[in-house]
Write a structure and sequence with these properties.
With 188 residues, this protein is an alpha/beta fold. It has a domain of 130 residues: Glutaredoxin (3-Layer(aba) Sandwich). The protein is 35% helix and 18% strand. It contains five helices and seven strands. The strands form two sheets. The chain has a five-stranded mixed sheet with strand order 5-4-3-6-7. Strands 1-2 form a two-stranded antiparallel sheet. The longest helix has 23 residues. The protein is elongated. The N and C termini lie far apart (96 Å).
Amino acid sequence: MSETEKPRGPSRAPGWALWLPLALFGGVFALVVLGLVHPASHDVPSQMIGKPLPGFALPAAADGKPGVATRDFQNGKPRLLNIFASWCIPCGVEAPVLAELARQGAEIDGIAIRDHRADLAAFLARNGNPYTRLGADDVSAVQLAIGSSGVPETFVIDGHGVIRYQHIGDIRPEEVPMMLEKLKEASQ
C-alpha cells in the first residue's frame, strides 16, 4: 500500500453536526415553553357584533315557556341568548352557571338546536330551566343566521336587538362577572 493510499476509516462529521440534534431539540423546547407561557388567543371574532339580530320567530321548544322571536329583544332591556342542545355535554356543564346568571338578574332566552321535545324536557328537568323564552330551531337556520357555529354559545343582545358580544363555548363560573358586565355595557 502506498503512502497515498491510506485505508479509510469511518468518516467523521464536522464538529457542528454533532450539536445539530441538540440545537433542534432546544429550539422545539423553547417554542413549547413560549406557547405555554403566552398561549395563543382562541377568540374567534364574530362578524355579527354590532349588527341587529336577523328576523326570526321560533315556536316554543318546551311546555310552559313561550317561543322566542326577534321582537323579544327590542324591548329596551339587554338580555342573553343562549344556543344549546340537550345532546350537548358542555351545555349540561354550563346549566348551573346560567342558573347563577339568572339569579343575579340576567334575563336569558334560549334556542334549542336540532332537539327532540322529550329529550329537551328531560335535560331541563335534570339541569334546571333558567330561560324566560325557549325556541326550537330544528334545522339550525337561526343559529347559522346569527353566526353561531356550535353549542353552547351565548350572545349579549342590547335592548334594540343588536348583538353586542358573542361567547363561544360554555360559560365558566369565573366568567359570570364578565358576562354581567357585558350585559351592563349593553344597557348603556
